[in-house]
Design goal:
This protein has 287 residues and is an alpha+beta fold. The protein is 30% helix and 23% strand. Helix 6 packs across helix 7 and helix 7 crosses helix 8. The N and C termini lie far apart (42 Å). The relative contact order is 0.17.
Length: 287
């Protein structure tokens, strides 16, 4: 296995970036700056070696030029191995994600160093950081990541190349109907239905190396890659609020299947303790 000596920075997020993050977290997207560009662990060669030692379940890759609203079952494979995909990504028209790279000790340390700088700011707003994870995205020129949502608090750091991420407000019932949230938290796919009239509701953020963006929990978004290979690092965490929101949508999925009225989900779902207990009991009964 190739050994890599990390390029260390005094801070991952400069003081101004942390101040901007504190003002926006947890509900607003915001563009930030970071200092991980040029890190030895984040080159194409390093990522190809990482990918080849990761379990198959932790890797997803496919052709990258996709419609914004592509269905998961319609996503085409690229016919290459994972190592081939990464090493030739400049020309093969693909997209790849390496999931839970924090399980590798070197990348786990990189994640912890970055998030420790933000942990006090997060704790003041939503409590301790839970379930810290890291994901790496590699995209060929012109690739598109379809319209989707994610369940975590997320900061995407642009390492190489450029992309435009268009972020939409969380909590818009037309973009994400209640039944979609319920199916998502009940194990459904992250991709969302796309309609062209949605576009005006989003805010487009152009990301160059050294840029980052905070994406709120379940804020719908899509990504359009620029004219060069892109590498992005996503550092994520959960909070009691995000976990509770997922539990309450899971509860509503169970209630809806039984033909029962669904529960209201408030702005502070972590306070809805009775409903969360009901969800856990119902899951045990269904197990």
């Amino acid at each position: 296995m190739t050994a890599y000596k990390p390029v260390t920075a005094a801070q991952t997020f400069p003081d101004a970036a942390r101040a901007d993050f504190a003002r926006a977290y947890p509900d607003q997207p915001v563009k930030l700056r970071h200092e991980l560009t040029g890190h030895d662990l984040l080159t194409l060669d390093a990522l190809a070696h990482l990918a080849e030692r990761m379990p198959a379940a932790s890797v997803e890759y496919n052709l990258g030029k996709l419609p914004l609203g592509v269905r998961p079952e319609d996503t085409p494979a690229n016919g290459l191995t994972l190592g081939e995909t990464i090493r030739s990504i400049e020309t093969n028209g693909s997209w790849a994600v390496l999931k839970n790279v924090e399980r590798d000790p070197a990348y786990g340390a990189l994640l912890d160093e970055a998030l420790e700088e933000l942990a006090p700011l997060v704790a003041r707003a939503t409590g301790p950081m839970l379930h810290r994870e890291a994901f790496l995205f590699l995209s060929s020129p012109g690739s598109v990541t379809p319209f989707h949502m994610d369940p975590e608090h997320n900061i995407l750091l642009q390492i190489m190349g450029e992309k435009v991420m268009t972020v939409f407000p969380a909590g818009d019932d037309e973009l994400v109907p209640a039944t979609k949230s319920e199916s998502f938290h009940d194990g459904g796919h992250r991709n969302l239905d796309w309609h062209d009239h949605f576009r005006d509701r989003g805010t487009a953020f152009r990301l160059l190396p050294g840029d980052a963006i905070h994406v709120p929990v379940k804020a719908p978004h899509f990504v359009e890659n620029g004219p060069a290979v892109s590498i992005s690092l996503s550092v994520t965490w959960r909070s009691e609020r995000s976990v509770a929101e997922g539990e309450l949508h899971g509860l509503n999925a169970l209630l809806r299947r039984r033909g029962l009225p669904t529960a209201r989900i408030g702005a502070r779902p972590e306070k809805q303790r009775a409903s969360r207990i009901a969800y856990r009991l119902m899951r045990k009964l269904d197990a």
